[in-house]
Amino acid sequence: MYFIYHLSTIVFGVFLIFFYLQKLLSRNSRSSAIVWVAYIIFGIGLMALNVVPVMPIVRTIYTWLGILVLCKVCYRSAPLNAVYVATVFCALALITELLCLKLLAIMGWEYLDVMSPGYERAIYILIAKVCQLALVIIAVPLMHREHSLLKLKSLLPLLACQIFSVYFCDEILRLTQNGGRKLSVESTIILIGILYLNIIIIVYAEVVKARQEERHNADLRQQQLELQLSYYDSLWKEQEQTRAMWHDMSKYLTAIKAVSVSGDKSSVEQVFLDAQDSLSKIGSVVDVGNPEVGAILQHYAQQANDLTVPLDLSVWVQLVKMFYDKEKMDKNIEKTTIKIQ
């Protein structure tokens, strides 16, 4: 009966690994049959190691290597990520076993009774698996993040706090056991306080980092908004300039045609000079082949022009190019006058 119970706990452990990996990793393109076969082979090996009397470290190493193989065969996972996932699971398993051993020792159970087949061993395995399931359920939401806000440099002092806390807890337990007393209320409060402080440290560091990320993202969004507003403002100004340019060009061309019909050369010259002076006030426009970049550069170029700051860019293209000079204009006027006569 104990053997069947022990095998059932192994099946539960394999299911726990399946639940853990399914929540953290994404399945690859392999069929479900291959996935089930991989888990069955892993479970058979784990059962064999539990039947044969081996050291617990051997089963832990086998579990760690088995999770690595499962990550490679059944899931999409980078090698370093697979190592991280396997290490965390094995660490959770070891923590739960140690905590359960300490708990049963406080309750007065002997270590040899817990490690030998029997009622005590069954209770120990049950408590350990339940605690491990609880830790996995808590750890999965914390690990299931594409980009963790806490980097390795930030985690090192937190991990050091955890290690020292475990050491302090172990020392308190040793003192209570050597004194021949049960765990006192004061010692229990100290243990809970140490755990509470470590949890608060991690949560506080996570919250602070999250606030920094939010502030940085808000600044980036504000900069993007300002650039977009400047782009649309400069685009609107360019449209107004283009509309005014075509209006002036149409007006002066109409005036030139009307004056050229009358044959008044001086009037044509005056209209031409007025048109040249009006169109030269439009200035220049920046054209780099990209309307968004050109509009942004044009916006800052206009600011530099308003502040009378000299600006010389290789992307400047003169908006007004007079492809005819005054002599050509005179000849055209004379030809028009001759035709009219």
Automatic annotation (TrEMBL):
Keywords attached to this entry: ATP-binding, Membrane, Nucleotide-binding, Transmembrane, Transmembrane helix
Residues passing through the membrane, by range: 6-21, 33-51, 57-75, 82-109, 121-143, 188-207
What lineage is this protein's organism placed in?
Bacteria, Bacillati, Bacillota, Clostridia, Eubacteriales
Q: Which domain of life is it from?
A: Bacteria
Q: Which GO terms describe its molecular function?
A: ATP binding
* Name the UniProt record assigns to this protein: ATP-binding protein
Reply yes or no: does the keyword Transmembrane helix apply. yes
